[in-house]
Amino acid sequence: MTDTAFRDAAGDDSAVEIPVGGTVGFSYPVGESRHNVVFETLQPSSCKQTAGENWGATPPLPWYQQGPGWAGTCTFDKAGTYVFHSGLNFLMKGTIVVSDATPTATPTVTATATATATATATPTPARIEAHDGTHNWWQDASQSSEADNSVTVKAGARVTFAFPSGASGHNVTFPSGPAPALCPQTKVSSQFPILDTNDAPPMPAFAQGPGWEGYCTFDTPGTYTFVCGTHPEMTGTVVVESGGEPTPTPTATATPTPTATATPTPTATPPTRPGIVAHDTATPAKNWFQDASSSDAADNTVTVDKGATVDFSYPSGTSAHNVKFDTNPTSCVQKTGIAITTGPPLPAYGQPASWTGECTFDTPGTYTFVCTVHPTEMTGTVVVKNVDGTEPTPTPTATPTATPTATPEPPRDTTPAKIASIWAAIDKPTVKAMTVSSFLKGKLTIVARCVSAGSGTLTLSVSKAVAKQIGLNGTKLGSATTTCDGHGRFTVKLKPNAAAKKALDDYRGSVKTTATLALAGPIGQTSVTRTINLKGKGRAR
C-alpha cells in the first residue's frame, strides 16, 4: 500500500489471484497518511496482524486506520471475488480473486420417463432494510412499497435487519413492548468497522453508517415494534405467529409430597461495591464523573481498601466516554460494550453509552483518572488505603534551603499527551465560488477542518419554504462522502441530485442553503452546520 493506491507486490496492478486456502500479505511500509484494509462484502476466513500497533481482532486489517509500519496476512478459504478499500479512502480499491483448485465436473443428465415432481418453493427469509434520502424509513426488502415496514413470521424464526447503503446512521431498537432476546450483528459498517458482540438489542449498539447487517430471533408469539435509535420516525413491526405444531400433552405424573424443610435464615445482602459513573447533558453541555453512591455531581472520588475492586460505567447519555489513569491499577476488565483491547484504559477509546467494567487496586495510593474525550472537565480519583486502614499521606512539598546548590536538571514530563476531542467546523467559503451555476456543474467545493474524526457525509439542503419557492421535491439538494484526512481537512465536491437539477435548472434567483457535516471516528461522533447562500444568475422568477 502507498498513499495513493494498492499495488500487487509482484506487479503493477491492484489485484491478485490465489487458490482456495491461499494467504495474501498486506503492508503499509512508508507514507504520510493513515490506512487499513476494509473488505466490502465477502470477508476472508481470518486475518493476522504481524507488525504495527495491534488494536484488536481482524478483519479489517488493522481494525482501524494506522500510520506506516504495519503489516499482516489474510487467509481465504472460500472461492469468490473479494473487493477491499482503504478505510480512509473509499475510492482506493483492490481485488483478491479466489478460485477452486479443482474444477467441479458437470453431471450428466439422464432422461427418465417418470413424471417430473412439482418443485416446492423455498420461502424467502424475512428481511427489513433501513433507507434514507429525502426521508428515513424501514422497508420489507421483499416489497416495493416504502410504506411496507412489517413482516410476519412463525415463532422461532429469524428476521434479518440491514442498512445496505445510505448517507445517515441507523440501528434497530425495541424501546417498548416485547423484545427479542438474541440479535447478533453479522456485518460491520464500513465507517465504524467494529462488531457489536453482546448479541442483544439494540443492534448495532448505536446508530452507524451503511454496511452493517444482523438478525434477531423471535421465539415468542406477539407483535414486536422496532425503531431506529436516532430517527423516531423510522418504525416497523414484526408479527410473530404460533408455529402451528400442537405441543404434545405430557403424561401426568404423581407429584410427591414435599418434605418440610426449615426456612433458612436470610443472608444479609452484601454492600454494593464502590463505583464511578460517567454522565453528560446536552443542554447545558456538560460532562462529568460521579461517585455512584453520591447525589452530589461534584463528588468524583471513592476511597477503598487495598485489594478492592471499583466499578466504572456509562449507562446512558448522548456522548462517548472512557476512563484513563495516570498510574494504572492492578487490572481492568471491560464487561459490556465493545471490548477492543484489554484495559486500562477502560474502554480503549471513548465509547457511546451502555459500557461497564471494573478495576482492581492492590497497591495503596491515589489514582487519578480522566476521560480521553473530555480530559479537561471529566476527572476523578480512587484513593486506596494503606494496610493499616489509613489514607496515603500526600508527598510533602520540599522546603527550599538557603544554602546555594547546583541547579538540578528540570523534571522530565512523563505525562502522555492527551487525546484530542472529536471536533469539526465548516470553513467559510469564498462568495465568488458559491453560485447556483457552479453547483449545477458539480464544481461546488466545501472544505471543513476536523480533529480525531473518521469518515462522514456532507449534505446540502434547504428549508421547506425555500424548497416550495424553487419547486424542489423534498429539501435535500445533494450530498457527498469522504474522510477527515491526515492534515485535518474534509474536502468534498457537491453535485446536485436529480430533483435539485430539475428545480434549479431555470431558476435565476439566489438560494439560501444549509451545509450539514456528520463525522464518526474511533472516539465518537459529531456534526456541524453552516448557512451558505448560492448566488443566482439574475432576476428571480
TrEMBL record:
Residues 149-241, 300-385 form the Blue (type 1) copper domain. Pfam families: Copper-bind (PF00127). InterPro entries: BlueCu_1, Cupredoxin, ET_Amicyanin. Residues 250-266, 390-406 have a biased composition (Low complexity). GO terms for molecular function: copper ion binding; electron transfer activity. Gene3D superfamilies: Cupredoxins - blue copper proteins. The keyword Nuclease does not apply. Residues 242-272, 387-414 are annotated as: Disordered. Keywords: Copper, Metal-binding. This is Plastocyanin/azurin family copper-binding protein. It comes from Solirubrobacter ginsenosidimutans. The lineage of its organism: Bacteria, Bacillati, Actinomycetota, Thermoleophilia, Solirubrobacterales.
